[in-house]
Design a protein that fits this description.
The complex is a heterodimer of chains A (about 775) and B (about 500). By secondary structure, chain A is mainly α. Chain A has 3 domains: about 110 residues; about 400 residues, no CATH class; about 60 residues, no CATH class. Helices cover about 70% and strands about 0% of the residues of chain A. Chain B is mainly alpha-helical and about 500 residues long. Chain B has a domain of about 210 residues. In chain B, about 75% of the residues lie in helices and about 0% in strands. Classes of the chains: A mainly alpha (about 775), B mainly alpha (about 500). At the A-B interface, helix 6, helix 7, helix 24, helix 25 and helix 29 of A face helix 4, helix 5, helix 6, helix 8 and helix 9 of B.
Chain lengths: ~775, ~500
């Protein structure tokens, strides 16, 4: 059992890796094998998971110190999704082989299979970490598949928008998972319901819930994040059918199902789901009614349907949710996944056959005459989408209405009204899709689209197979539900194709009536808008952000090194002051105020230094500045004399002399300094800044001087110099022995500097030679 | 003896190699081959060090066999060994990349300077002595400036100037701070300083100097508000140098902070932690906004370094083993992914003859391998699983929430989204679209360049897939780092091996 679960997850990824090294043709065949294998492994598990409600847990250790695992589990909900993903996936692969032809590269197959694996892993994850990893992988795969043809601008912007929106949702989900995990003390879903009390008691509970729901809503294109889904329609038809209607967008619904046993008791849970779901239902429906592109119409209707699926979780009280499944959910998901993916595939076929998917063109043409089979198939799909009787969509709608009528919550009447309105809009766009596409006044022209002989028959066979359960379910719904989807659950008596006159039936009929009236109104008054797409608020936000960041980017770099220096020095001073002020600066406890040497003569060198520094600032030409700075340096040497440090005196004099000569030589070749162009205020500010900084350094030096250390290294070095290092001059011993590595390093610095100079000089010389 | 050798080699070998390479000036192929041999030894040495320190052992090399109170010690613990390994790895791939990428005039002195840079980096990672660190910083600084200016173009020298000036003044501050610290504490040995800071109740001026030192390290790391030199200078350097810097230089700054801050955190003023968290969060945000606003490939990528450094320091600032390990993971991830990105961007630049976004387009179609390498590294940087960047992000957020820093954690997530956006900006501009502007397509097929890029991209995948064992090692590193005692004890025990040092 354990190996089977792992195999189900692993097979698609192995397939994806293998596809990369195969030819397109063989990669396509392999892609067919993968879902078939998954089905073969998972179908035998269905009776146990669905009928007997068995749950299989596979604990897998991962990051034990953080309390995170990679555990898998198979239960009713998970097994249902496995079958859905693999089943629809099988059809999609076969359709893709026929539809994409040479465009189905090994890369395409690899990404598609990886997506399939990620989707299977999501629904089999018990660990939230694992779930999240694969959640993000589906986002990535979706991006690659939408943007597959990076040449089309529409595909690019659609892919990026989808990535950013679902990516943002992913980050929200990540935060939510981690908050939840820290409240619960576990990241395993199966351990959470037992800790529901602990979770409910935490104040961060609703934060976790909201963050996770935002993740679910972005993935499932719920309002207000729904706008990315229509943009994703730039992907080829089978990708739209698979990712953006049948499977990936349902991951959010799946997650809500997984969360319902954990958060069901939260008072926020149901109202959020119901409100967001119904709003999405209406917004998606209205957009679908207005759409002129058949694929966009389907995308908006997918949004609407996802709204229904979300709302279902908002209706039933937590006690009625078993294993994360609410009544009618599996039916609704099955129904939608099958008919919607079939319709996407059929629109893909239609686009090939008719050369367009623009309803404003198609509505003038009588395509049913030429393509009766396709017409019938789209008709079945459209009828079930609109909730007409004798197909599965009808049942699904009835379950939804029944649930709303049975529920007891404030605003139930408004919810029912929204459901009726949304249902009516579904009727409108279903009729648009079927009637307007196929029953126009004129015969279609011959010059558009491919001839029938060039279109593979699979483009109709695959959708026909996907629609088959709809017809079966429409005729024998009790069997499909009671024996296949949710065996063991007793469905109420009203659940049949035809039942007595009751409230639900009346609502159903009135929905159909309003919808048909709406459709007639649409036919009469709808006009193709002049501008096809309006700019989305999201795109405006994105371009504002880009503009702001490029302004920021320029501002951050303005001012050059003098500003960078000022920032650095000010920050250093502030940090230093902050650290000092933490104590009670200046703390003089234990301070030493007498010096070991006679400082009577100190004012003399001090005066030299000060005079040198001040004059160096005041004079205007470079040479004088250098000379005055050297004077200050020689003043320092006098200090070393006072401290009886002859080595330092010699070194200081040497350094000052050499640098004086070098600087004079260099600066002679430079142009004279121009007049100071800084404003007076600026000069004063700079002066103040420099003085304050100098003073700060002085304070630091003084303060460290009055707190001599207890056991300085110097004392020990002095003691060890002669007996251990056999050297009388401790400075030399420090340089070449105690701290010889420093000296080696400094020599290296000089060497590197020399190489740098040589490198630059050599280039200059060569450049000059080339010019000559 | 063996242990001493292992600690010595990361500094001594590049130094010797550099000297050798200087005798081979003008024979670039030979120089590259010699560098690769030396780099291989360095890599093997780092692996051995990693193995030796895995169990928590700390190798201490007292130079000249002097006690740490008198002389200089080099210390290799698990942290230093891990960093050395990834430094050696990035350095090696850079050497592979260099041969195809360097222009004729850059080639002459590149290889010795590369080795000198490694001397500085290796020494900075190993030294247990603040003044010795200063010396190695100087080596790094000089070598890196020479490398930036290597192309000899006026713009390179011009944009390199802020880099040098800021870092030189930083060095001066470093010196002042170390001087003041020695004045009040009587030592520049880090472990010894930590002990004295903890026990003796040092005067406040010690902390004033320490804050100054922290500022210098922040400059090296390019943290807010002292980051501006980096996005100026890095994109101007040649691609190879840019990649090398992205992989090594700022990460040395990060390492120095990881090395020193926990040593003193226990005794430091309480303002340290909130200040670090604030600095980290601001750095993340500022870096990503700056990156998003750039209009050249390497401009975006280089500004991103700033943002990523913020993540690493965020992990440090939380002072928990989990967060610290996450910060280290992020550091490692970034060394690989960022270098890969810059290398890939560099190839695109060569193909198009310009680094401007939209100057060259459609590379995904014409250069699928290059595109794959870039995409993997970009998604890693954006934190997509199962790549290495994801784990850094995941555990940083875990650590951030557990440590009670929800605001900074939230910022880090927002920054993740912006990072994704900026990567998509490059992807959209350069890799998608109809192929155009690909003036020198043959340049994209140089094996060394593409191979180095793909190798780094593969490493970010491998790091992501092997996250569990790597992370558990880093957690041990982090625990050792936070528990200062093992480091301090090991360093101070170094003198007991040496009978001579027992003299008073």
């Amino acid at each position: 059992m354990h190996t089977i679960l792992i195999a189900i997850v692993a097979i698609p990824f192995v397939g994806a890796a293998a596809a990369l090294v195969l030819s397109s043709r063989w990669a396509g065949r392999l892609a067919l094998l993968v879902p078939a294998l998954v089905l073969a492994l998972s179908v035998p598990r269905w009776p146990a998971a669905a009928g007997r409600g068995e749950t299989v847990l596979v604990p897998i250790a991962w990051f034990p110190s953080a309390g995170m695992t990679a555990s898998l589990r198979l239960d009713h909900l998970g097994a249902f999704f496995v079958l859905l993903v693999a089943g629809v996936g099988l059809g999609i692969v076969q359709y893709s082989r026929a539809y994409l032809g040479r465009n189905a590269t090994p890369r395409f197959w690899a990404v598609l299979l990886a997506f399939m694996g990620a989707m299977l892993a999501i629904v089999l994850s018990d660990s939230l970490l694992l779930l999240f990893v694969f959640w993000e992988l589906t986002t990535l795969a979706s991006f690659l598949l939408i943007g597959m043809d990076g040449a089309a601008p529409e595909a690019r912007s659609g892919a990026i928008r989808a990535f950013l929106v679902t990516g943002a949702g992913g980050l929200s989900l990540l935060a939510g998972i981690l908050v939840l995990g820290q409240i619960a003390g576990t990241y395993d879903l199966s351990s959470m319901p037992a800790r529901a009390e602990r979770i409910m008691a935490s104040p961060a509970r609703d934060v976790a819930l909201l963050l996770m729901l935002v993740g679910a809503f972005t993935k499932s294109a719920q309002f207000p994040f729904h706008f990315w889904l229509p943009g994703a329609m730039a992907a080829p038809a089978p990708v739209s059918a698979f990712l953006h209607s049948a499977t990936m967008v349902k991951a959010g619904i799946f997650l809500v199902g997984r969360l319902s046993p954990i958060f069901g008791a939260s008072p926020a849970f149901q109202p959020i789901l119901l409100t967001v779901g119904l709003t999405t239902f209406l917004v998606g429906g209205w957009n679908a009614v207005r759409a002129w592109d058949l694929k966009k119409l389907l995308a908006h209707s997918t949004v609407a349907n996802l709204g229904v699926l979300t709302a279902l979780y908002g209706i039933y009280p937590p006690a009625d949710v078993h294993g994360g499944i609410v009544r009618g959910e599996l039916l609704a998901i099955t129904s939608h996944a099958l008919y919607k993916s079939a319709l996407f595939l059929l629109v893909g076929w239609m686009e090939k056959a008719s050369g367009t998917r623009d309803l404003s063109i198609l509505k003038e043409e009588r395509w049913f005459r030429r393509e009766p089979i396709g017409g019938v198939l789209i008709g079945i799909g459209a009828l079930t989408m609109g909730g007409f009787p004798f197909v599965l969509g009808f049942m699904s709608k009835e379950v939804f209405l029944q649930a709303l009528l049975d529920a007891r919550f404030p605003g139930a009447v408004a919810a029912v009204a929204a459901a009726v309105l949304g249902g009516a809009m579904a009727v409108v766009y279903a009729l648009k899709l079927f009637v307007s596409t196929f029953w126009g006044p004129e015969l279609p022209p011959d010059w558009r689209g491919y001839p029938r002989s060039e279109i593979s028959r699979w483009l109709l066979v695959v959708p026909a197979i996907l629609l088959l359960p709809h017809v079966i379910g429409g005729i024998a719904p009790g069997w499909l539900l009671g024996s296949v989807l949710e065996p063991g659950t007793d469905w109420p008596a009203w659940f049949a194709v035809w039942h007595h006159l009751d409230r639900i039936f009346l609502l159903s009929v009135s929905t159909l009536g309003i919808g048909i009236a709406g459709y007639l109104l649409w036919r009469r008054y709808a006009r193709v808008p002049a501008q096809a797409e309006t700019e989305l608020a999201f795109d405006r936000l994105a371009s504002t952000l880009l503009g702001a960041s490029s302004a920021f980017s320029r501002a951050a770099q303005a001012g050059g090194h003098s500003r960078y220096l000022a920032v650095m020095l000010l920050f250093g001073a502030a940090a230093s002051a902050a650290a000092l002020c933490e104590g009670s600066f200046p703390r003089l406890r234990g301070a030493q105020t007498s010096w070991s040497v006679d400082l009577l003569a100190a004012p003399l060198p001090a005066a030299i230094i000060a005079a040198g520094a001040v004059l160096a600032v005041l004079v205007q030409d470079r040479v004088s500045k250098i000379i005055f700075m050297a004077a200050a340096g020689y003043g320092l040497a006098v200090f070393y004399v006072l401290f009886r440090a002859p080595d330092l005196v010699l070194t200081q004099i040497l350094v000052e002399t050499v640098s004086l000569i070098l600087l004079l030589l260099v600066f002679q070749r430079l142009p004279r300094l121009g007049p100071d162009e800084r404003s007076r205020g600026r000069r004063v500010a700079h002066g103040f800044f420099a003085a304050a900084l100098g003073l700060g350094m002085a304070v630091l030096a003084w303060a460290s001087g009055i707190h001599p250390a207890g056991h300085p290294a110097g004392a020990e070095q002095l003691a060890l110099s002669l007996p251990e290092a056999k050297g009388r001059n401790v400075v030399n011993v420090i340089l070449v022995d105690f701290r010889g590595a420093d000296t080696l390093g400094e020599i290296t610095v000089l060497a590197v500097a020399a190489i740098g100079v040589v490198a630059l000089r050599a280039k200059r010389a060569r450049a000059r030679a080339e010019e000559a | 003896m063996m242990a001493a050798l292992l600690v010595l080699i990361p500094v001594a070998l590049p130094l010797v190699t550099a000297a050798l390479l200087l005798t081979l000036t003008g024979r670039a192929r030979l120089q590259q081959a010699a560098s690769l041999v030396s780099g291989g030894v360095l890599l093997a040495n780092a692996m051995l060090l990693c193995a030796r320190t895995a169990s928590g052992a700390i190798l201490v090399l007292p130079l000249g066999n002097w006690s740490p109170r008198v002389g200089i010690v080099w210390v290799a613990d698990a942290l230093a060994a891990t960093m050395l390994f990834f430094v050696a790895l990035v350095s090696y791939t850079t050497l592979l990349y260099a041969a195809g990428s360097l222009r004729e005039r850059e080639r002459r002195y590149y290889y010795p300077l590369h080795q000198f840079l490694l001397v500085g980096v290796g020494g900075s990672l190993l030294t247990g002595d603040l003044f010795n660190l200063f010396v190695f910083f100087e080596i790094m600084l000089l070598a890196s400036f020479a490398l930036i200016a290597l192309g000899g173009r006026a713009r390179q020298i011009c944009m390199g100037v802020p880099y040098v000036i800021v870092n030189l003044v930083g060095s001066a501050l470093f010196l002042v701070a170390v001087g003041a610290m020695y004045g009040v504490a009587g030592t520049v040995n880090m472990a010894e300083l930590a002990v004295r800071a903890e026990s003796a109740g040092l005067p406040d001026v010690f902390w004033g100097a320490a804050a100054l030192l922290l500022t210098v390290f922040m400059v090296k790391t390019a943290l807010f508000p002292v980051f501006a030199w980096l996005p100026d200078s890095y994109p101007e350097a040649s691609v190879t140098v840019n990649g090398l810097f992205a992989g090594l230089l700022t990460k040395v700054g990060v390492y120095t902070l990881f090395r020193t801050v926990p040593l003193f955190a226990g005794a430091a003023p309480g303002v340290l932690q909130p200040a670090l968290v604030a600095v980290a969060a601001t750095t993340m945000l500022v870096g990503v906004l700056g990156a998003l606003g750039r209009s050249t490939i390497r401009g975006v990528l280089s500004f991103h370094i700033v943002s990523q450094v913020g993540y690493m320091i965020f992990g440090l600032a939380l002072f928990t083993p989990l967060a610290l390990a996450a910060g280290l993971f992020h550091t490692i991830h970034n060394m690989l992914a960022k270098t890969a990105l810059i290398f890939a961007g560099g190839i695109a630049e060569r193909i198009g003859g310009s680094g401007k976004l939209y100057a060259v387009r459609g590379l995904a179609r014409t250069q699928p391998w290059l595109a794959a390498g870039f995409f993997v590294a970009a998604m890693s940087l954006a934190g997509m699983p199962p790549l290495s960047g994801f784990w850094g992000k995941w555990f940083l957020v875990t650590g951030g929430l557990a440590a009670g820093a929800p605001v900074a954690t939230g910022i880090s997530l927002l920054v993740g989204l912006f990072t994704l956006a900026s990567m998509l900006k490059i992807w959209n501009a350069v890799f998608w679209g109809e192929p155009e502007g690909q003036r020198y397509p043959s340049r994209g097929r140089y094996r060394g360049m593409l191979g180095a890029t793909l190798a780094l991209a593969a490493m970010t995948v491998a790091t992501g897939l092997l996250a569990a064992p790597i992370f558990s090692r880093l957690e041990r590193v982090a625990t050792q780092l936070l528990d200062v005692t093992p480091y301090v004890t090991a360093v101070r025990a170094a003198e007991s091996h040496d009978a001579r040092a027992e003299a008073p």
